[in-house]
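Changelog excerpt

This revision adds worked examples to the README so contributors can see how folded entries look when concatenated. The first example is reproduced verbatim below.
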Amino acid sequence: MEKNYTIYMRKMHYYETDQMGIIHHSNYIRLFEEARLAMMDKEGLNYASIEEMGIIIPVMWVECRYLLPLYYNDSVSVHTCITKFDGIKMELAYEIYKDGSPELCTSGHTGHCFLDKNMKPFRMKKFYPALYNKLKELTEEKNFKEKITNK
């Protein structure tokens, strides 16, 4: 993943395992959500505060690739970054690693949109310019670093 990402760390719990003793596939989507909210908090974009502004950010789609299994008591880090943002839609990328290992266990992406309380899209740039500029800045920082590392 690009260098401009946020790392969310936590230990996997027993209740997240399935009959085979590995972390159930549905829990990876929860890890993505936890990491996304932690990234937003770290960047000063508390989700509860955004909701208080009358904005909701529903998930439109999820993609998850399970490469190596995770197990109970594994400590993991989820690397998260915003890859696209246009004021109406936002996409994020995720990579999950076991602590102490360079091997990628899981990769994924989520797509989101921004809606008002009536479930209607709105012009974020016009009505919430500070939020728009912060999200745009985070996306542009990522794209700038990506361009530098790909030269």
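The second example, added in the same revision:
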Amino acid sequence: MIIMAYNDFRFTVSFPDGSKMIIIFQGKNVPWKRIQMVKDLIDIVSSAEASNTQNETQEQTLMERFKQVIEGNFNDGSWFSSKDVLDAYRRTYNEDLKPSTVSTYLLRLYNNGMLERRGERKNRVYRLIKKVEVKRF
């Protein structure tokens, strides 16, 4: 009985949603050119996945990103100004906003009951309203 030795090359790519792509080469003489082609394919798929993730971040509305910045940086009950929010937004998204845009969105969040505010126009500060959940027994 003759036993032939085969080379097995297995490529597995896992995606964020849990799915997998598996490519297997089996054979006595698998050409390196084919292996390189699969590696190139994996690079293309990986860069497309990274691009899709980046696009999903860009698809968030400005209001969603604005809320995330506030909830992520000022959820400790501290008071913050529009300049504080603008600085945090710039750090988080590496994008610039006009101060008037920040003021507009802070006003909308205040009107929606997400923020409380105090002070006059020039010295106005805000803070997140903590939501308390009451359970009845």
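Reviewer comment on example two: The domain at 62-128 is CATH 1.10.10.10 (Arc Repressor Mutant, subunit A). The beta strands are 7-14, 20-27, 115-118, 125-128.
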